[in-house]
Amino acid sequence: MEQTEDTTPVEETVTLTAADRCDVCGAQAFIRVVLATGDLVFCGHHGSENKDKLSPIAISWQDETSKLS
Ligand SMILES: [Zn+2]
After folding, report:
1. Which residues have C-beta under 5 Å from ligand 1, the single-atom ion?
2. pTM to 2 decimals?
3. How far apart are CA 27 and CA 65, in angstroms?
4. Which residue has the higher pLDDT, 10 or 48?
5. Cα 66 from Cα 37, distance rounded (Å)
């Protein structure tokens, strides 16, 4: 068993699909951010744009931009 850090709740990883759309621009989302207040999804562009702002408060940061290449 791997030890999980207390600050990181176990979240079920949901793969992003073409139906997931960036909350900012509506493009296909490749980044899912789990916040205490809910989930946000972003395209690669807006994910990196918001990363500095959101990553310190994000519970989890799921980045599937590698699918783009
Ligand atoms: Zn976007």
Report:
1. 22, 24-25, 27, 43, 46
2. 0.77
3. 13
4. 48
5. 26
